[in-house]
Write a structure and sequence with these properties.
Helix content is 37%, strand content 20%. By secondary structure, the protein is α/β, with parallel strands linked by helices. A hairpin with a 3-residue loop joins strand 1 and strand 2 (11-17).
């Protein structure tokens, strides 16, 4: 048996799989986020340990015999969080999370230093780890002086599980301290934020052994004495391992609260000016790129709140058959946009409204606006040298056939819908635990799920969609100055 632990912002998921990758059981535990000031987002690292104990405890209560057979554990977690510990492994302050924006000034200052984009391959976003430490140095100097190690969230769990200070490449690439091409910490970038390599965890690949479960926990959980803990992955890379998106040309589109177009790369292809993330993947000698849009299903949920109709009711009004764009354009920038604009201040807009603009017309525009934002990400990835032949759709929005047909037509790519199953980060983490424990070939383990159906582009509407996309592209520069 193999255990995947996925530390999410709202909770921890513990998933148990067997050697044939069949899901045996799942345990959950909830977490909350503290927001003491506007723009702040924090969690107490001790709560992660409590939640992990609770989630594994739930698995033990329901599957004690199977849990006892665990040979490997994989870790996944939300990225970019700054977990600061002293020389005695004591937590110095609450973890500053990925969606905390307090360090926007520090991020801008670091991004203005050309070394950061040159070495990391990414813009220094306020959510990344490095600007958070610059903020702590400026506003909490006594705390900064005591920092012995900076750990990412899942790697704080690893310290508790194994006693080791280690991280993997995919998670570390989101700090703004990693030389992403060389897969090594950059002493130069660390020095720019007053830190040294000695204050960083050691680096391993996500598939490698990265510690052994402590005897005390092994006895408590009823498992053996030599349980391997894998390097693991950041949450998106772990999800990609679960989806089998690990080889050149493989890609998925995630229609969740935010939207992600994720592509695996066999080489390092940075293009930071397009606001594409270029990170190490969890597998050796593999990288990935991500285009990120901040409001995907969130845009439809906003429209739902305004109209008083559920998201399902709104998309049902569109039917299953794709329609030509109406001339109403929607920009889904309700909380700014990441790819391709890196613009925190821009906001959403409807353009082209008329007396005949019904609720269904506005719903169609919202769906198309998110679709065109994903097309923006595809164009940004293509400009960085990535070639994608097809995508797999995941996330809540993928339940709408209309939306998938819209994405297929706008991207000009077939969209695969996976068969039912849980292929998320916890499953990907469990797969990494299996690889680390057995030495199995990563590509033979991280295979894609069966495809339930494929949604093809609607050829008859490709011209109308292309025209609507060009109109969509023209709106951002027109309203940016407003």
């Amino acid at each position: 048996m193999y255990l995947g632990l996925d530390l999410g912002t709202s909770g921890i998921k513990a998933m148990l799989i067997d050697g044939s990758q069949r899901v045996i059981g799942v345990g959950h535990a909830a977490l909350t986020v503290q927001r003491p000031h506007s723009g702040w987002s924090e969690q107490a690292p001790g709560d992660w340990i409590r939640a992990a104990e609770e989630a594994v405890g739930a698995l033990k209560a329901s599957h004690a015999k199977e849990l006892a057979a665990v040979k490997g554990i994989g870790l996944s977690g939300h990225m970019h969080g700054a977990t600061l510990i002293d020389a005695k492994d004591r937590v110095l302050r609450p973890c500053i999370l990925w969606n905390d924006t307090r360090s926007h000034e520090e991020a801008a200052a670091l991004d203005a230093d050309p070394r950061f984009r040159a070495l990391t391959g990414n813009i220094v976003f306020p959510g990344f780890t490095a600007p958070k430490l610059a903020w702590v140095a400026k506003h909490e100097p006594d705390t900064f002086a005591k920092v012995a190690k900076v750990l990412l969230p899942k790697d704080f769990l690893r310290l508790w599980l194994t006693g080791e200070y280690l991280s993997d490449m995919s998670d570390s690439a989101g700090t703004a301290w990693l030389d992403t091409g060389k897969r090594a910490w950059s002493p130069e970038l660390l020095a720019a934020t007053g830190l040294t390599v000695e204050q960083m965890p050691g680096l391993v690949e996500g598939t490698e052994r990265a510690g052994t479960l402590r005897g005390e926990l092994a006895a408590k959980w009823g498992v053996g004495s030599d349980v391997v803990v894998a390097g693991g992955a950041g949450d998106n890379a772990a999800s990609a391992c679960g989806m089998g998106t690990v080889a050149e040309g493989q890609a998925f589109v995630s229609l969740g609260t935010s939207g992600v177009l994720f592509a695996a790369n066999g080489s390092y292809l940075p293009k930071p000016e397009s606001a594409v993330h270029a990170f190490c993947h969890a597998l050796p000698n593999t990288w990935h790129q991500m285009g990120v849009i901040l409001s995907a299903t969130d845009a439809l949920n906003w429209h739902s709140g305004v109209t008083g109709k559920s998201a399902g009711e709104l998309t049902a009004e569109l039917g299953d058959d794709l329609k030509a764009p109406t001339g109403v354009t929607f920009l889904p920038y309700l909380s700014g946009e990441r790819t391709p604009h890196n613009d925190a201040k821009i906001r959403g807009a409807f353009i082209g409204l008329g007396h005949d603009s019904s609720r269904a017309v506005l719903t169609q525009a919202v769906v198309e606006g998110v679709t065109f934002a994903i097309r923006d990400s595809l164009e940004a990835l293509k400009s960085a040298g990535t070639k994608i032949d097809r995508v797999t759709a995941i996330g809540g929005g993928s339940r709408s056939r209309y939306w998938l047909a819209s994405i297929a037509t706008a991207l000009g790519l077939p969209v695969d819908v996976p068969a039912d199953g849980d292929f998320g980060a916890a499953f990907g983490a469990a797969r990494l635990g299996l690889i680390a424990a057995t030495g199995a070939d990563p590509l033979s383990v991280c295979t894609a799920p069966e495809t339930a159906e494929t949604i093809a582009p609607v050829a008859a509407l490709s011209g109308a969609y292309e025209e609507a996309y060009r109109r969509y592209r023209s709106v951002y520069p027109a309203i940016k100055g407003l």
